[in-house]
Amino acid sequence: MIRAFEETDMDTLVDIWYKGSLQAHHFIEADYWKSQMEDMKQKYIPMSETHVLMSPSGIVGFISMVDNYLAALFIDVAHQNKGAGKELLDFEKNRKSEIHLKVYKENSSAVRFYEKNGFVVKEELTDEQTKQPEYLMVWSGN
Fold it and tell me: What PROSITE patterns does the annotation carry (predicted)?
């Protein structure tokens, strides 16, 4: 079941985001992700429209959108590679006609995931904070 984010979900979402970021972004210092935790909690999640995917045992993952920009898609490490990411992405694809996102070039599993789900690389950029190369990817439902 997918439902709208509730304030009581915040600590769980930040934990999923942090652990997922450490796993997916081994090429960035762990201290960087730790330094971003408070901003996730106070700024980024509150400014986005966030939905969570539930299982009987609790929150499996979440997706955060700012208009047509996919700001975050994170699945609890224990639930990855079981279709949860696709389920959340399809949820937003049914609500939007176009979705943009940025993904680190070195995060090859995420790049493959998005390509498999119809996204195409539009541009190669450099993340200002981490100085890492990233792709701007776009999905269009038209």
Answer: GNAT
Give me the number of domains the chain comprises: 1
pTM of the model: 0.93
Round to whole Å and give the CA distance between 3 and 14: 17
Instruction: For residue range 5-38, list pLDDT tens digits in order.
Output: 999 999 999 999 999 999 989 899 999 999 999 9
Torsion, CA 65, CA 45, CA 32, CA 54, rounded to 10:
-80
Q: Is 50 left (phi over 0), alpha (psi -120 to 50) or beta?
A: beta
| CATH number, domain containing residue 10 | 3.40.630.30
Q: Are the C-beta atoms of 63 and 103 separated by less than 8 Å?
A: no
For residue 57, give the nearest of 81, 83, 79, 88 by alpha carbon.
Answer: 79
